Amino acid sequence: MTKSIRALISVSDKTGVVEFARALRKLGAEIGSTGGTATALRDAGVEVQDVSDITGFPEIMDGRVKTLHPLVHGGLLGRGKQDHDVMAEHGIEQIDVLVVNLYPFESTVAKPDCTFADAIENIDIGGPTMIRSASKNHAHVAVVVDPADYGSVADELTANKGSVSDATRRKLATKAFAHTSTYDAAIWGYLQQQDGQAGYPERLPVGLTLRETLRYGENPHQSAALYTTAGARPGTLVAAEQLQGKPLSFNNISDANAALECALSLDAPGCVIVKHANPCGVAVSDDAEQAYRKAYTCDPTSAFGGIIAFNGPVSAAAAQAIVDNQFVEVVVAPSFESDALEAFSAKANVRVLACGDRENTSTGSRVLQQVEGGMLVQDKDIASITRDDLEVVTDRQPTDQEIADALLAWKVVRFVKSNAIVCGKDNATLGIGAGQMSRIMSAEIAGQKAAEAELDLEGAAMASDAFFPFRDGIDVAAKFGIKVVIQPGGSKRDEEVIAAANEHGMAMMFTKTRHFRH
Q1: 3-class secondary structure per residue, 58-73
Q2: Catalytic entry in 14, 136, 246, 347
Q3: Could you read off the pLDDT of 163-204 as tens digits, one per residue?
Q4: Complete domains list, the chain, with CATH
């Protein structure tokens, strides 16, 4: 014999709800509903009862109050025999299935014309309250918040004659609490942003939504997945549309994000090639093709199997140059010309991602890094330096071209793992030394990389992400022909380092800003 079922359905996203309601009715379920959901179900021929008829209380305040009633929450929280007498006394009937999803707060605030009043009206109250009631009482109620679960829940109800298992109800409740948690995190984030609150809150809600499960993590024995934060904006990797190619791996995503962030810091047209999270070639030029060719020239060996990012549209000529030159894993850019996509189609496995234009590349945000048992949180490193910020500390003054070369190297060094050294000239990097335990070794590697690519460092600029603790790094720079150095300064041996630059006839500029990247 099929168990008698009472269901309450109130959804903002109506995907699949008619079919699910029909499956419930086929099992003889009584269905209560609200507002637009009730209208949609009736229009589809599904018999429903308005919640206002169940409670005897009308929907008021433009729909703000409709399900906040003891007859609703008593039905969701009733514990069967334990509460039978009190429910009977007050005319409360058990609700066995709750189907709810919430007002579209995130999509509403993402609209450019969204006002603060619009945002507030899209904060759901009745929905989360019902979800929490049903989830707490999951021993007796199946709460469904995801349309993707309609089919499996309907199948189980049918197979078990109106019941679902304890395990299914618990799984659904767990998912429901995650649903309301991420919803509240999105609201918190919006309100904090609107208020411009400074400092670090006592509690930091982090709302993450699964985008996709990945084949594996950094290594094949590690499982992995990609989650998105609330309000992922255009111009970011997680908002990108994949136009062709194999599924993205964990390392693809990590490296492509690093490449895109670096590219967006450059003047356009700019190109960045990344390998193992570090730039191995960066350039700006008159067009995307030339920017790519200059970036590739910096380190063709490391560019093999790398990730390429552009900060503007990718032309057919740029795409063809990539296809002809190298094996590449991912190409990401705001957009691609149609002929560029045709060129990439010759390499069907290349992952091509269009991320769209980012409205403001200088907007700050918080960066989270997990540690065992906790989370490190800091401001995003977006500090920018112009020539007006530079302090020349040597006898020789840099030329305009040397300042331009130094500023490009300084932009790039922010995206290179510490200890970081970047050498560049004529709007392109020539040698990059990354992730060494000593700064002098990073300087040696940068010079050796340039020599390996047969690039001349004579007259080039060198950027260091932190101060030089000794003069030896300057002596190495001189050995390779470097003529201008840009660095934060601040070492107790600054005078010794400046003296070394003067001995070698170099110009040196202090930024008074450090760019460690771990």
Answers
A1: CCECCCCECCCCHHHH
A2: 136
A3: 899 999 999 999 999 999 988 888 888 887 787 666 777 777
A4: 6-194 (3.40.50.1380), 234-354 (3.40.140.20), 381-510 (3.40.140.20)
